[in-house]
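Handover notes (outgoing to incoming on-call)

Open items:
1. Putative pyrophosphorylase ModD: sequence verified, structure written out, both below. Nothing else pending on this one.
2. Nothing else urgent.
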Amino acid sequence: MAAKWWTDALVDQLLHEDAPHGDLTTEALGIADAPARLTMAMRAPSTLCGVELAADIFAKAGARAEVLAAAGARVAAGAPILEAQGSAGPILLAWKVAQTLVEYLSGIATATAAIVDAARAVDPDVAVVTTRKTFPGTKRMMIAAIKAGGALPHRLGLSETLLVFPEHRAFLADPAAAVAALGLAVPEKKVVVEVVSLEEAREALAALPDVLQCEKMTPDGIRAVCALVAAAGQPIVVAAAGGVNAANAADYVAAGARVLVTSAPYWAKPADVKVTITPA
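Putative pyrophosphorylase ModD structure tokens:
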């Protein structure tokens, strides 16, 4: 089972958001105590995320749930992923929250896996990482989804990494000297410098950063930066960022990028989860 990245408080929050005063329809119909069974299955091939959280949501509502396929699993169309049993009240209460979470998170995981597969078909050791552009308030869920798809987070927030943007350099009298000093000021961190052109990459080389992050460059642009770094004889990693997706990931890796930085999975289409609820 995947490591638990959520809290009981999050489960309570999700249920309370959808049913702050209970399930009015189920209660009014008088069917809350009827025995029920729910199954979830994928309508298309998918990489899963959120199934364990969904099981916890059913359990918190008062049903019994079994995970049939774990986060990170690649499942075929029609594959069952979760089964819940208990009274109709708890199952109907948790149903839509659990289904929607699995759909959104599996959509992100599936899109991530497509980028990872395309990149690693060219170089099995290339790193695929995602930006901090998660929807505010949902970071823990979206990061869990990209990890299920085989990627890792590039930056979880401003407090953890050194990434120098052109917007930072605009305030510096001597950008190369200031960037070079970062390695001494914060020695346990790697220094990443974002550049948007070959000329900026050439200027940044003087600071000997650990990583040159090339923003919105074409694969040919990445190839030129890689040649520049090779000619300098420095062990600087070249990362491609901005516009990286499943369709062009292989081209960026073939051009020499050792890291692909992407936000694309965060806007993935949700997966389609089929839910069947029957009397037990």
